[in-house]
Design goal:
The protein is about 10% helix and about 40% strand. The protein has about 160 residues and is mostly beta strands. The longest helix has 8 residues.
């Protein structure tokens, strides 16, 4: 029994894919202390170059912000991921965001979650940088490693590897 538990602990690393195509930025560089100081959890950020936001992992949609700027996803291994499009985008009250999923939907890596009109959004908020954070990372003793890549393709590029 002991041996079985040991094997379980050193499980395969989890790879989170990019939720959007763009430039990868460490969370510490997000111009908002809530994200840069990791108050919401570990993660990465992307400066978007395309409009499609996709699922970074297989899981279930657990939250869609009423203002449509953020989507929460719970992976099959109980990681809770928040994709927050832009900074202060809650003020847009949904304008520029077309959410394609509903709470309770099961999604696979690369499934489209929303389409964002960045032309509209860009001019109305301080920044379109899009943080992806693991909101329950505090409760685990996992290790989070940011990719060395600087550019990513939505649903294809592994941007964060989680060990533990």
């Amino acid at each position: 029994m002991m041996f079985k538990n040991l094997l379980k602990k050193s499980s395969t690393p989890i790879q989170l894919k990019a939720p959007i195509t763009g430039e990868i930025v460490p969370l510490e560089k997000v111009p908002d202390p809530v994200f840069s100081q990791k108050m919401m959890g570990e993660g990465i950020a992307i400066i978007p170059k395309e409009e499609n936001v996709v699922a970074p992992a297989d899981g279930t949609i657990i939250q869609i912000a009423p203002s449509k700027h953020a989507i929460g996803l719970k992976t099959n291994d109980d990681m809770e991921i928040l994709i927050h499009v832009g900074l202060e985008t809650v003020s847009l009250d949904g304008e520029g965001f077309n959410v394609l999923v509903e709470e309770g939907d099961h999604v696979s890596v690369g499934d489209k979650l929303m389409i964002v009109d960045f032309e509209l959004v860009r001019n109305k908020v301080p920044h379109i940088i899009t943080p992806m954070v693991i909101t329950n990372s505090e409760q685990s003793n996992k290790e989070y490693n940011l990719t060395a890549e600087t550019e990513c393709k939505a649903g294809q590029t592994s941007v964060l590897t989680i060990n533990g």
